[in-house]
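Researcher: We're teaching a course module on how sequence relates to structure. For the next exercise, students receive a sequence and then see the predicted structure as tokens, so they can try to spot secondary structure elements on their own. Here is the exercise chain.
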Amino acid sequence: MDDVAEELAIRNVINLYGLAADCGDIETALACHTEDAIYVVSNPMSGRVGQSDDLELKGHSAIRDMLSSDMHQSLLPNCAHTVGPLVVKVHGVTATVLGYSRVYHSANGEPRLMRLAFNRWDMRTEGGSWKIARRESRVMGEDKAQGMLKNTVGEML
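Model: And here is the predicted structure for the students to work with:
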């Protein structure tokens, strides 16, 4: 596969995860990740009442628990995860992706932006397919979000 085809495959996996999360298809969402995937979410209560520290999920079991949690399920079916624009850099069998994500939630038929974040996805091939090996999602305005951006932007050239 050439770099353009690899990049498209990577973008499709990232987008498929969001769509699967929105329709409650946990198995497809998990299939987008390596078995040992790490998912770091800063302030997971952003857009909701209350504050929280970072949430770090390790492996399919933890990601499954998050997706099937009462908190996540309470968003469905009135939720849309969107990503982009993205910058993708392929390094052979691994890749780095940097970009934005948004979560919209509709209450009373009025969609509103619930979360705006900067994300870094570390991808790797597994069984001939691209998978998310690590994702770090940082809410806009956090010092850690700016640090992640500054550290990653230079790698993307």
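Model: If you want an answer key for the exercise: The chain is about 30% helix and 45% strand. The chain has a mean pLDDT of 91.
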